Amino acid sequence: MVRRPLPGILSNRPAWDRGRDLARFAAEGATDVLHPVITITRGLRRQAAWLHRWWSTAPRDRRNTTLFVSAATLFVVALLPYGPVLVGISLMGSAAWLGRDRLQSPEGPSEAERVRLRCIYEALVPYLTAEGDPRPLYRHEGDWRHAFVGYEFAQGRLVSLRLRYPAYFTDGEPEARARVEQLLHAKAGRGREYRFDWNEEENHLTLTALPPLPTAIAAQRFVTAPGETVLGFTDAASARRTIPVRVDGTVRDAPPVVWRTGPRSTEPHLLAVGRAGSGVTTLLRSIALQALHHGDLLAVDGGGTGEYLFLSGRPGVLAVESGLAGVLATLEWAAHETERRLIAVSRARQAGRPAPPDTRRPLWIIVDRPTGLCQLAEAEGRTDPLRLLEVPLRHGRAAGVAVAVGEQAEGLDALGSAVLRHANARVALGALTAAQVRAALGAPPCTTPAAHIPAGRGYARLGDGPVQRVQVPATPDPYDEDAADAHRQAVLGVLRTSDPRTVSLSKSRENGGS
């Protein structure tokens, strides 16, 4: 007969060992038995902590209102049958849900991510280390966790990195910044756009990989106020609002870059610069379509390619010119019209009357590639077209005249001083160098260049504001057979909605039917 061994707590081990085992068994049993109570207690503690945080941060008037509504609700519930019981069950259930054991996700980066961060840290050592520093933040074989405050990876690629740099780093020099940004751009992975945010006060640099801007937004009637023009669409963090747009048959919100014109605008005129095929003409066409909803339009095609002939004969379009004689006559009329409006507005104000109605309707002047016409006028000994634009540029803000000029990047220096001085809304499109973007916008680009730049993609800057990414809505010539049929139909649809004769015809049919 085999003798069974005694339990551990009844064996011949010392008394203190048996007591320790007994205490451990009792604690485990008590934990299992009291686990629901522990969970509910933990949940009640979390609820109380949340309530304390809310109470300390909420305004006084909101706290009083919430306290009164809660007291009234509890009083009503107390009068209901089984009301207190239901409240207690709900409170215990929510406490049990908040106090449950949550699975902790593994902390820290993976091995591949640690290798990537280590490479970036080692590459920054020559740029962020100075001789004589007794405790350098960046040193070979150093700990990258002391320098990198935060990081984020998505699908194995770095999408965000926040790092510290020593106080002696010359972050106020553009050359020093450019060297660090170029290095991080190469190490984080080319082919994407990166934005660098320098916090000079706290000595922090944040790198963010930006997603590509949507290119599927076509021309349409945007929801804007009079005097507002949508130049394109940008990142959500760079815009103060969103507008509904229709994309592939669905409506969604998109953050726009809005250019404001009118008597109170600080950027009454616009200059768009880009290379051939970059989308400058597309931007001017989009501006022209939006201008027809609230004003009159003059279009000058300096390239002579017929990009604006689809506007001829449309309501609100006063002229579409491409020849030198017609352009000079149109711009001369625009100068006289600006002076007439200015005199009429001034006389009305002196008499204490509102401005005449014909001066309150905006007049838009779209000029595409004027430098070619300037060379032709100089060869023929005629008036420079840019000289005729000086009056609308100087006095257009008070007279309700807005000028939008488009030119290739190579001809930026040939533009007159009046255009460069008064066109404070700037757009640079296409694959331009950092120096060309700075010359066009007056500030460096806000991101690194992308590997693939679609038409209409670039940067915009309104006055002295920040530089923003922008994607111009697809606005092709509706008579261009090579353009997408959906985009051509979208342009024709906008032209139909801006035709007042269509509205009057529909109204006459309704009146006849009634």
Describe it for me?
With 514 residues, this protein is α/β, with parallel strands linked by helices. It folds into 2 domains: 111-210, no CATH class; 228-500, Rossmann fold (3-Layer(aba) Sandwich). Helices cover 42% and strands 18% of the residues. It has 16 helices and 16 strands. The chain has helices spanning 15-33, 35-57, 60-79, 83-98, 111-124, 174-188, 280-291, 324-350, 357-360, 370-380, 385-388, 390-399, 417-422, 434-441, 485-497, 500-513; strands spanning 148-154, 157-164, 193-199, 204-210, 228-233, 243-247, 250-254, 256-260, 270-274, 296-301, 317-321, 363-368, 401-408, 425-429, 457-462, 468-471. Strands 11-10-12-13-9-14-15-16 form an 8-stranded mixed β-sheet, with helices on both faces. The protein is extended.
Structural class: alpha/beta
- Under CATH, the topology of the largest domain can be stated as Rossmann fold
Indicate the multimeric state: single chain
Which strand order does the major sheet show? 11-10-12-13-9-14-15-16
CATH architecture of the largest domain: 3-Layer(aba) Sandwich
Sheet of most strands = 8 strands, mixed
| Strand content bin | 15-25%
Please state the CA-atom Rg, rounded to the nearest Å. Answer: 34 Å
Unreliable sequence segments: 500-514
Average pLDDT works out at: 86
**How many β-strands, per DSSP?**
16
Superfamily at the CATH H level of the largest domain? P-loop containing nucleotide triphosphate hydrolases
* CATH uppermost class of the largest domain: Alpha Beta
